## 1
Amino acid sequence: MTTRVTVWNENRHENKNPVVRDIYPEGIHGAIANALKGAGYDTKTATLDEPEHGLTDEVLNETDVLIWWGHLAHHEVADEVVEKVKKRVLEGMGLIVLHSGHFSKIFKSLMGTSCDLKWREADDKERLWVVDPSHPIVKGVGEYIELEKEEMYGEHFDIPAPDQLVFISWFEGGEVFRSGCTYQRGNGKIFYFRPGHETYPTYHNEQIQRVISNAVEWAAPVGRKYPQYGNAKPLEAIKDK
Amino acid sequence: MTTRVTVWNENRHENKNPVVRDIYPEGIHGAIANALKGAGYDTKTATLDEPEHGLTDEVLNETDVLIWWGHLAHHEVADEVVEKVKKRVLEGMGLIVLHSGHFSKIFKSLMGTSCDLKWREADDKERLWVVDPSHPIVKGVGEYIELEKEEMYGEHFDIPAPDQLVFISWFEGGEVFRSGCTYQRGNGKIFYFRPGHETYPTYHNEQIQRVISNAVEWAAPVGRKYPQYGNAKPLEAIKDK
Amino acid sequence: MTTRVTVWNENRHENKNPVVRDIYPEGIHGAIANALKGAGYDTKTATLDEPEHGLTDEVLNETDVLIWWGHLAHHEVADEVVEKVKKRVLEGMGLIVLHSGHFSKIFKSLMGTSCDLKWREADDKERLWVVDPSHPIVKGVGEYIELEKEEMYGEHFDIPAPDQLVFISWFEGGEVFRSGCTYQRGNGKIFYFRPGHETYPTYHNEQIQRVISNAVEWAAPVGRKYPQYGNAKPLEAIKDK
Amino acid sequence: MTTRVTVWNENRHENKNPVVRDIYPEGIHGAIANALKGAGYDTKTATLDEPEHGLTDEVLNETDVLIWWGHLAHHEVADEVVEKVKKRVLEGMGLIVLHSGHFSKIFKSLMGTSCDLKWREADDKERLWVVDPSHPIVKGVGEYIELEKEEMYGEHFDIPAPDQLVFISWFEGGEVFRSGCTYQRGNGKIFYFRPGHETYPTYHNEQIQRVISNAVEWAAPVGRKYPQYGNAKPLEAIKDK
C-alpha cells in the first residue's frame, strides 16, 4: 500500500513576506508535497489556519507519516491537537520535523528537553556531512549536501542523544550541528532534519527532497498491533512463598 | 564537596496501609535516606504533603541529585513543581526515578512517551541481571540481584531506548523488563530503577541500596555553566554572496 | 531489484547427528533458504566444505544479505574468507548472525569483544519479548515469540551495547538474554538473532522465519558509493597563520 | 586508591623530527604524563622500543587506564601485546586512544571497523564543540575548545556509532568530525579523542589536558569480578516436556 503523507505547515511567513512567497508560491507545504507526489507518495497538506489546523481525527487516522514545519506560531497550535498527534506517533505514525519545528510543541513534548540551540540569519554556507552511510535515509545522497546560504543552527542543541545520528552540519561562521537525527518513541519513528529556513530555496534542492522522501519511507509505520499494557496474568506458574 | 541528595516520596501508602508502615516505619523516603546517609551523602527528604511538596526553590537549588518515589498521587503533584524540577534536571541536577515513579509527571515529561507497562502483584520472584558490567552503577554488585518477592513489571515498557541499559529483570511469571536505564537530558543525568513495591522490603536490601548509592554518585552534576542559546555572532568571517 | 540472499551454514551437525538430520533433512541452510524463497527473496546457500566455503568473490559480490550459522567448526573457517566477508559488510552487505554464530570469527571481528555468554542444553522454554515495537524487524510478530524448548543463552553476553535492542529473551531456568540486536558497521547493517539450536525445530517456526525475513529486508544495502577516505583537499580557503 | 595511568607512545616522530622534539622535548608521552601527574594520577610511561613495548604483564596488571598514541609504526606493535591489551580492556582497564591512534591495531580490533577517515595537514583551525554537556569528560571545559592549527580529520569516520558522542569538531577547510567518542567493551571503557598531531603543541593546551584528565577519571575500572561465562546450571527448576 502506498505510504500516505500529510505535510503540515504553519503557512504564515508565506502570507506576510513577499520574499518567502516568491520562493514558495504554493507555500513550503506545497513545495514539499509536490516533491513527495513526484516520488510516488499519496500526499496531502494541512495548515494552521484550517479548522483543527487541518489535523482532524480522520486526517490523522489516514496519515502514515506527518511532516511538520512551524516557526512563528508554535504557541497557536492547540494543545489538544498536539496530544492527538503525539498519541498517533506513539501508535506508530511516522513524524518528520523540519528546521524551526525544533521548537514546536509536538517535538518538545516527544523529546522531553528544551530543544534550544544557537541561531543566526547571516547567509552562512551549510554543508551537511553524512556520518551514517548505512542508513536508508541517505540513499542516493553524496558524501555531503552543500547549501550556499542557510540560517545557522549551532550546538549545543538541547535534545536527547539521537538513537541514530545521520547528518552533522558544518557552518561557515564556525559552528557545527547534529542536523539529521532519528528517534524511536513508542511504536513510532521520528526524524529531525535541520535545513529549511523560509527565506532560502532549500526545499527546492533535489538532495534535500531526496532525504525527506527517504525519511518518509523509513518512518512509515510497521503496522503492528499496539502492545497491551496494564494488569497481566502470569504466563508461568508462580510458587507460593 | 559532598553530593547533596533529596529523597522525595509521596508518602501515602505508609499512612494508609499498616503492612507498608511495618516495613517502612520511617517511610520509604526514610529508609532510602538512611542508607544514603550511611554511604556518606548529605541527605534530606521531602514529601508530597509538605508546602510546595517540600521542593521549594531553596531545596531544589541545594539538591545535586533528586530521588523520586510516587504511585497513588502522581496527579496531585503540582505542574509548576514539575516544571521547576525539570528545569533543574536540564540545568544539571541528577534524577533517580524509582519503581512506580515511571508514571510520575516528571518522568513522563522527560521521556516524551506514555511510560506504560504490564504489571502484576503476585509475589513474583525477580532477578535483575547486570548487562553492562563496565557501568559505575553496578560497582560492588554481583552478576544479578535476586528479590524473593516483588511486583512484576513487564515489557513492552514504553520508554525511549535507554542511552545505557544496565539491568534486565527476569520474572517468575514469564516476563522480562528493562529495569535499570540511564538517560541524558540537557546537562542532567537520569536513572530509572525498577524495584521497590511498597509492600515488600526491597529498599532494605543491601544490593538495592548499593545500586541507588552508586547511581547518586553517577548522576551528580558535572558543574558546567549552562550553554548559551539564542542568537549567536559568527566566530569566523562569512563571505558576501 | 529483488534482494539476493546467501544462507551460509557450517553443515556439520546435520552430517553427524541423526536427530539434527531428521529435523533439518535439507540442512539448517536448506530450511532457512526455503523460508526466504517463500518470502520472495533470490536465495542461495553455501556451506563450509565447499571450495572457499562456497563464498567465492563472485558469490559475495552477488550477495546483498549474508546469513551465518556455525558452531563446531568456527576455527575451520579460513581467515582470508573472514576478511573478505568483513570487507563486504563494511562496503554495505547485510549480515544476519544466528545463534551459535555469536562465536564465529566474522562476528567476533565485527564486534571487537569476546562475544562470550552463559549456556545450557536443558530444554528450557524461551520467550522472546519485543522491546522495540517500532522496528521493521518485528513486523507481523506478536508481543513475544514462545519456543517450547531451546538451548539457554544467558547474560552477561559480552557484546558492544547494540545500536538497537529488539528482543529480550526470558528463559525458564532463570536467565535473560539480549536476543535480537542490531549494529551498524561501515556501510553495512548487522542483526544478531539468538534462537536456533540444531536439535530443536526452531527454524521451522513461522514467527522465527518472519523475523529472519524482516531482517533481510532491513539489512539490505543502501547502495551508496563507498565513502572516500585518505588525503582530502580543503573545500574552503584556509588562512595563512 | 589513586588511579594508575600508563601513557604509551610510539615515540618515533620525536626521534626523527626536530620540530616535534622542540615541541615535545620529553616526548608526547612525557607531556601527557606530566599533565596527569599534575592532576594527581599515579602515572607511568611506556614506549614502542622498550622490551615488550614497555607493556609487560606486570605493567598492564598495574594499569587502570592506558593512554595510546601511535602513528608511523602501528604495524610494529606485536600482535601478542595487542591481544594482552585487549584482554585487559575487556576485563576492565580503561583505554584512551588519541589522534592517529585511530589506526592502531588495538583500536581497530576493539571497534571492528576500518577506522578510516579523511585527513589533511594544512594548518586548519579546529574547534571542538561540546555536544553532551552532562558528560563528566567535559567538566571544566567551555562550550568549545579552539586550536589555532591542527591536522584535519574529516567524516566519514568509519567507526561504530559511539555509545556517547561528546565532541564534534569544526574544521576551517569545511569538514566536521566526531572527535570525542565513548565506547563500552566488556568490563572496560574506551574514549577516542581526536586532537594531537605531533607538529602542533596540542597536548600543552590546558583544555585538552583537562579532557584527557577527565577521561582518565571516567574510564577507571569499576572493579567488579569478571562475569562467569560458559555452561551454567539452572537457577529455577525446568519442567520435563
## 2
Amino acid sequence: MRIGAIEAGGTKFVLAVGTEQGEIVEKTTISTEHPDITMPKVIEFFEDKGISRIGVGSFGPIDCNEMSASYGTLQKTPKTDWVDYPLGGTLKEALDVPVFIDTDVNVAAMSETKWGNARDVDTCLYITVGTGIGAGAYFHGQTLTGLSHPEMGHIKVRRHPNDDYEGTCPYHGDCLEGLAAGPAIEKRWGKSAKELADNEQVWELEADYLAQALTNYIYILSPERIVIGGGVMKQQQLFPFIREKVLHMLNGYVTSPYVTEREIDQYIVPPGLTDEAGVKGALYLAMRD
Amino acid sequence: MRIGAIEAGGTKFVLAVGTEQGEIVEKTTISTEHPDITMPKVIEFFEDKGISRIGVGSFGPIDCNEMSASYGTLQKTPKTDWVDYPLGGTLKEALDVPVFIDTDVNVAAMSETKWGNARDVDTCLYITVGTGIGAGAYFHGQTLTGLSHPEMGHIKVRRHPNDDYEGTCPYHGDCLEGLAAGPAIEKRWGKSAKELADNEQVWELEADYLAQALTNYIYILSPERIVIGGGVMKQQQLFPFIREKVLHMLNGYVTSPYVTEREIDQYIVPPGLTDEAGVKGALYLAMRD
C-alpha cells in the first residue's frame, strides 16, 4: 500500500510517498505561498502516485477533530492567506482518498514514538523551537486534543531578572514563544542564532525559559520522554543547559529515575528522525485509522 | 453488583458501597491516622458487604500504573506514616477482590465527566484548591498518566507585583501551591480563608494565581471543561474573578466559543457532585475495567 504524507509548514510543504514500514520512497519540497499557488502543486504531485490514503501534519491552528464539520480547516493562523482554508477538504475532493489531519507537532510526537527517540515508551512530548514554539503529545496511542489542539508555546514563564526584552507575541507579548522563539532571540540580541552560537549568555537565558516550560509540562503531562527539535535546537549546546536547569527546578519532587542526573540525558533528547519527524508522522497518522 | 469505593484523603477516608448506576447505598467517614489504625477499620467496614471489586481515589503521590510491581503503593507523600505503604496490596489481600487505584483528582475528573458538571463533554480537567493544589484530567475515556500522575499544583506562576510572601512549598517555595493553597492564604494574611471572606484584595490575588494556572492548563491540555473544587473554592466569589482573568490572559488567542465572555460561566465551574466527586469517581473507576 502506498500512502501519501504531507508536512504542511508555514514556510514549506514536504510532500512524500511512503510505505507502511515507514519508508519514504519519494519526496519533494515546495515553498508555502498563497493556497491558489501551493495547492495545485500539491495535488499534481500526488495525482499519479496511486496512493490509497493521505496523512497531513499541518501548521495551525487547525481543526483536527474528526467529528467536526470543519475538520482539516485552518483557523486564525498568522499566515493570513490560509485563514479558513479547507486544507483537508481540498485534498479529499481532488485526490478522492481518505485524508487524516493533525498538527505538525502532534504527528511528530507520533513518529518519534513509533520510529524515533521515544520508541521505547508510551508517552512522548514533542516540542519544536523555531520561528514559533509548539508542542504535541502522544499518550498511550492518542494525540492530545480537547477543546482544540494544545498551544503549549503560549504559556507564561517567569522573566529572567536580567532580561527586559518585551517579547514578540502579538497576543501575549512575553509568553514563552514571545521570549524564546527564534525571532525573539534575533531581536533581543540583534543577530541571528547562528551568529550568536559562541555567546554563552544567550543560551543560558534561552535554556532558562525552555527549562521553565519543560518543568511545567512535566508537572502537567508527566511524559516519559521529551523530544525537542526545531531550528533553534540546532544549537546543541542548549541541551546540557536545559537538562541541568530542569533538574534544578524540579528539585527532587518527581521521583522517577528518568528525571535524575543519571538518566536525564536520555529523558530530554533531540529528535531521532531529525528532519523527517513531521513527514513520517503524517505517514503514520494515515496508517493508523 | 455491589462495588466498594474509597476516597483516601490526607485527613479522612470516605468508605462507601455503591451500585453501577452511581448510587451510594452506604457511606461512612473515618479519620486518616497511622495505617495500622486506619486500615483495619477500612477492612472491617467492607468485610461483610459482599462487594465484587473496589475502587480507590487516593492522595499521592502514588503508583497508579497497573503494569507496575508497586501499583497502588504510596510514594514520597508528606504524610510520612504512609510513605511506601501498599494501600492497594493490603486491600486486595484482606478483601480478596480486584482493586483499582488512581489519584483522588483523577477519579474526581472521571466522576464529573460521568455524572457531574462535565457530563456533556469528553475532556475534563478537575482541580482541587485546598490544603494543597492538585489536578486530574480525564480525556476521551482515559486518565492522564505517563511517567507518573501529574502534579499540576507545582507549576510556577508569575508573582503578583504586590505580593512578597515567600510561599509554603517545601520543594519549590513559591510554586502555585506554595502561593495559592489554603495554608499560603492563611499564613500570608494571618487569618483563615473564612475570616477573610469579605476582603476583596485577598480573592483578587488568589484569582490571579489560579487564573495563570488555568491559562497554562488550557494551552497545554485544551480541556473542554474545567471543574474546580476543594475547600478554598467554597469562597464562591473567586469564580467570577477567575473567569474574567482567564479571558484577559488568553486575550482571544483560543478561538473556541467555550472561552468567550458568553460561555465562560459554563466552562469554569464548581463540581456538580459537590463533596461526592471523589467517592463516586472511585466507584466509577472500579466499574470501568
